[in-house]
Amino acid sequence: MSEALICVGVISGAYGVHGEVRIKSFCAQPDDIETYSPLTTEDGKRSFALALIRPMKNGFVARIAEVATKEQADALKGTQLFARRDQLPSLPDDEYYYSDLVGLEVFDTGGASLGHVKSVQNHGASDLLEVHTAATTATVLLPFTRAAVPTVDLAAGRIVADPPEGLF
Question: Is 135 exposed, middle or buried (0-12, 13-18, 19+ CB in 10 A)?
Answer without folding.
Answer: exposed
